[in-house]
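Budget justification, computational time. The allocation requested in the original proposal was used primarily to generate structure tokens for proteins on the priority list. As evidence of use, we reproduce two of the resulting records. The first is shown immediately below.
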Amino acid sequence: MSPRRNRPKGAGSSGGSAAEDRSGRYGGWQSTESWQGEEWSVRHVAGASAEGKTYRCPGCDQMIPSGVPHVVAWPEHAGVDDRRHWHKACWNAKDRRTLRVQRSRNAPRF
């Protein structure tokens, strides 16, 4: 018996662009959205890509645990340092939230 073939015939190296490779590497897709008068790049990250990492969501100020699917968003004109990791629900509800997150006196600011 021959081994099972996981790819269809002829599916070798397709020579795709680097942008296609980057979006596939993180297990999601990337789009552009308008928010607060700016264009934002939004990338959906699969849980497997976030394994071993935790982030603080700016929408709810709670931790995003390791391995949880989430959204990474940043203004298009900004650099890598301005990326923020959001819960998917928090990103979808960003227009319904207040702009200032109330923190306790001793809470760390991320």
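The second record produced under the same allocation is shown here.
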Amino acid sequence: MSNIQALPLLETTPGEAVVPCCPPLTERPFTAEEAETAARMFKALGDPVRLRLFSAVASHEGGEACVCDISDVGVSQPTVSHHLKKLKEAGLLTSERRGTWVYYRVEPSALAAMGRLLTGVAPTV
């Protein structure tokens, strides 16, 4: 049994606006918990292969990509699966199995949360 849990980039409460996990960097110093959450997210993207995979999914037509379409990143297929798993654990990707293939999507709130964290600009709805 795994104790891995996706990190909440944005927390939602029914009837309330979406709240990012962490304030913008320029708003105030992070608490230890906020820093840990943000660090895990950026650590997942700190590997060049993971960043390429994340970019491939985010920019793929239709907003989702089959693992068969994005696995040409210069590493073996098991390594691709490992990196995709790390991106999912960080809350950056979601996946859905369709037959023998797995399709990945960027977690809808991930890009907005990262953008707000770095720029302090609230996403437009």
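A brief technical remark on that second record: The chain is about 40% helix and 15% strand.
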